[in-house]
Amino acid sequence: MARRPKKASRPRQAKRKKATAPDRGLEPEAPPAGDVAPPPEPVAPIEPVVEPIVEPVIEPVAHVEPVAPIEPVAPVEPVTPVPRSGLPDAIQSVTAHGKISQVALSDDGELIAIASMSADRRAPTLAVHRTRDAAEVCAFTIETIAGNGKAACFDAAGDLLFVAGDTLFRLKVGETPQRLGRIECEAMFRDAAGKWLAFVERNGAVRFAASDAPLTEVWRHDAGRGHMLYGTQVRFVGGTSRVLISALVDRGPLLADLVERKIIDEYPRRGACADASPSGDLVAVFEPRGRQRDDWFSIYAADADDALPMTKAEIGPANPIAFAPDGQQLVKTGASVQLIDIATGAATDARPAGDTPPGSTITPAVLAFRAPTIAWTSFNFPKGDFRASWASFPAA
Questions:
Q1: Alpha-carbon distance 333 to 98, whole Å?
Q2: DSSP string spanning 212-256?
Q3: Residue 58 resides in a domain
Q4: pLDDT for 288-315, tens place per residue?
Q5: Residue 213 is part of which domain span?
């Protein structure tokens, strides 16, 4: 029997490759010596993995409320600037039977109330006049209201609050005065919004109260320190809770805050008066009896400590001043009326104030809250002249 020939040895490379190849069963016979190594066996194709198709689960959509349509935003109305005030065409006045304690203007400028003191029990000590023609609307005497008129102030609703003797009254014009209660008061003031009232007592102290509870004290300050000059003045600053207390014997005008119940600042010049512009951004400090000094008044911006620079060559001698309705000018009152431009210091011609006797003492003026009307008083004891005057400012 013939012997089986020996198998030829494979190349080392092929043998190493075979060693790493996966087991595929029986090895094929080696090719004859000298032949080229056979090509590698074809790799079986990879079967694609088919993922099962999952049907999406559609959740039912919840009911959606319809969205309300957006209302169009109303355009912001531009702030209408207050027209520049012109010099009054005419100045009106009425006389009283005794020294006038205080005058008050209704917010619309249609009425003026005059509280005065008289030895004649039948003479009016509280009178209300129409500003357009000076006609008397109503009047009360010592006999009808049991006291001299001391203070007067219109409230925001148009009713008149006044003090006669030691009693506070409320008067709906045309009706009988209503007694509210006992009070000590020499002058009375209120703010533009009609929220606060200020009562000045004989010793110069100022008592503050809410307008809907005038007899209930909210805060009290001994501003006058036991003395009054010739009538402590109170002026509320714009629409804020701040208030100016002035015409004090031994102090300059005080700036107080009613909410904080404290004095914030004190302006220079002892005994000086002060007034705030309608917007509250400016404060005027003036000395009505400043003689011939050219620095008898100053203007301050908001809380500034230093006065604004202002040329005063054309302004003339001292007299009470107040802010004009436009807030850009000052009104100088007395035997005549004059407008002073704050920015330049230029003054208009003076408009004579009727029959006010020379040498009369003029009290600081008050401005109606919603009308271009101003009112002030004068007294001249040697001539027995006691006068309330008022004027309206046209647009320049």
A1: 21
A2: TSTTSEEEEE-TTTT--SS--EEEE-TTSSEEEEE--SSS--EEE
A3: no
A4: 776 566 778 899 997 778 888 887 777 7
A5: 91-392
